[in-house]
Specification:
single chain, mainly alpha, 10k-s Protein, Hypothetical Protein A, Chain A, 2 domains, 0% strand
Length: 120
């Protein structure tokens, strides 16, 4: 009985460091969302602009027609219009750049592409 208990104890002692090491290796993946200042740098850099485009496209693809209404049906045109609107909003609202990236993208698109609520 003692040998079985000892084997379980040793096994558990090895499991804890392994789990701890796994936790440390994934710690870098648990970063907070970027703020507007960091996102504007990504958006303005030609090398990282495709990453910014992906974030902006993700927002308008999910919320277009509900929080804001980008009129053209062409996805490439919508993407270009959204990119321009977000860049303009971030540039003109520097006091808001402390806010999270997604929030700022939504605010930029809401300001530039308001939905027609009158039903016309």
């Amino acid at each position: 009985m003692e040998k079985g208990y000892l084997a379980i104890l040793i096994k558990k002692l090895y499991t804890v460091p392994v789990l701890f090491c796994l936790n440390l290796s994934f710690a870098g993946l648990c970063l907070a969302e970027t703020d507007g200042e960091e996102f504007l740098k990504v958006l303005m850099n030609p090398e990282s602009r495709p990453l910014a485009k992906a974030h902006i496209d993700d927002v308008w693809e999910k919320w277009d027609g509900t929080l804001f209404c980008i009129v053209p049906d062409d996805p490439k045109l919508k993407s270009a219009l959204a990119m321009d609107a977000v860049q303009k909003y971030l540039t003109n609202n520097s006091s808001e750049l402390f806010r999270p990236r997604r929030y700022l993208i939504i605010q930029a698109l809401r300001k530039s592409f308001q939905c027609n609520l009158s039903g016309e």
